[in-house]
Amino acid sequence: QVQLVESGGGLAQAEGSLRLSCVISGRAGSAYAMGWFRHAPGKEREFVASISWPGGTTLYSDSVKGRFTISRDNAKNTVYLQMTSLKPEDTAVYYCAARLVDWYSDWEAPRDPSDYHYWGQGTQVTVSS
């Protein structure tokens, strides 16, 4: 059973920073493309960033490009989302997601949530003005 566990959410002030982490476990010997999505009250789930396996391709939404950085430490089975210059509109529950991929798929970093096979429970990020 594959599990994703997010951490690092919390309260930050505008222009502050937070770093989210997502640890994936449960299916040794598999390769995953990873994504971060967010869901704010009254809005649809939104793509934030994605990273291929083993990490050569990264994609960002226009709303976070230049402020957020996605990265991964494959030895630790962990993906990170470094968030800087936070804005109140970044307030949301942030979810990480994993897509099982082939070992040689360093181009694959989907934006569409329906392309992901596994999801974490989410971590709340609140940015105050």
Describe this structure in words.
The protein is an all-beta fold. It has strands spanning 3-7, 10-13, 18-25, 31-39, 46-51, 58-60, 68-73, 78-83, 92-101, 118-119, 123-128. The strands form two sheets. Strands 2, 4, 5, 6, 9, 10 and 11 form a seven-stranded mixed β-sheet that branches. The radius of gyration is 14 Å and the shape is globular.
Average pLDDT, to the nearest integer? 96
Class per helix and strand makeup: mainly beta
- Care to count the β-strands? 11
Proportion in β-strands? over 45%
Helix content: under 10%
How do the helices and strands follow one another from N- to C-terminus?
EEEEEEEEEEE
| Count, helices | 0
Radius of gyration: 14 Å
What are the low-pLDDT stretches, counting only 5+ consecutive residues below 50? none
Based on Cα principal axes, name the global outline.
globular
* Main pleated-sheet profile: 7 strands, mixed
Oligomer: single chain
Cα end-to-end separation: 40 Å
Topology, pairings included?
Layout: E1 3-7, E2 10-13, E3 18-25, E4 31-39, E5 46-51, E6 58-60, E7 68-73, E8 78-83, E9 92-101, E10 118-119, E11 123-128
Parallel strand pairs: 2-11
Antiparallel strand pairs: 1-3, 3-8, 4-5, 4-9, 5-6, 7-8, 9-10, 9-11
